[in-house]
Amino acid sequence: RLQLALVPQGIRLPPILAVCEDESVLGVPFYVMGFLDGHVVTDRLPAGLEDPAARSRLGEELIDALVEIHAADVAGPALAAFARPGSYLERQVRRFSQLWEINATREIPDVEQVARRLAEALPEPLPDSVVHGDYRLGNLMVERGRPDRVEAVLDWEMGAIGDPRADLGYLLATYTEPGGGPSPLGVSPVTALEGFPTKAELVARYEERSGREVGPLGWFEALALWKAAVFCEAIYGRFTRGE
């Protein structure tokens, strides 16, 4: 529903061809999206990104596609239906604290301590925008013939209306910059190559293109990595139960 609401606003999305709510077909509701002939960049670069200049352009596109998402009109009726009362950031901390209680397989005091520190230091929110919730290079598709251009943004199941810095902080927390250390999650190792922007350059381009001043993003990076820890524990729990 969120993707369909975003289509008229020019967001780069795969076309949704059909939606089926009848669980008797596959056992769950599902949708069918149109095929896109491109690449998803994870630990290898597709042909056409050998040149540092092309990698630089892809890094800029990574930000430009996010700016487009955050520019969507959340006050219009199509997106206003997704808004929820209260603080998005407070809700994120509270929800993932509850998920930790449900999914923890062992005592890890650091996880609970970080939760408390996040809750005690909630930033003053920026005006609401669409939040993708899992925005990183590996959740985008680049064009096959022009791999320095983002064709579509994928994986919207964490989408919501909230503080746009949540996406920017998550991107930084999962991004490996040239000359820097690897991301704790290791999800974008290719961006360590020459030509890709630094984290500071990503933020500068975001502020320039969006017109927003985002300020310090450490809280949002911490939120991203803490949420990832909760996710990883849930996955580990399923593994230990043989699921």
Describe the structure.
With 243 residues, the chain is mostly helical. Helix content is 43%, strand content 10%. A three-stranded antiparallel beta sheet has the order 3-5-6, covered by helices on one side. Strands 1-2 form a two-stranded antiparallel ribbon. The two termini are 29 Å apart.
What tags apply to this protein structure?
243 residues, mainly alpha, three-stranded antiparallel beta sheet, two-stranded antiparallel sheet, 7 strands, globular
Total strands: the figure is: 7
Structural class, from helix and strand content? mainly alpha
The neighbouring-strand order within the major sheet is 3-5-6
The percent range for strand residues is 5-15%
Radius of gyration, whole Å? 18 Å
Short summary:
By secondary structure, the protein is mostly helical.
How is the secondary structure organized here?
Blueprint: H1 2-6, E1 16-20, H2 23-26, E2 30-33, E3 38-39, H3 52-70, H4 77-80, H5 88-103, H6 109-120, E4 129-131, E5 140-143, E6 150-153, E7 160-162, H7 165-173, H8 199-210, H9 218-240
Antiparallel strand pairs: 1-2, 3-5, 4-7, 5-6
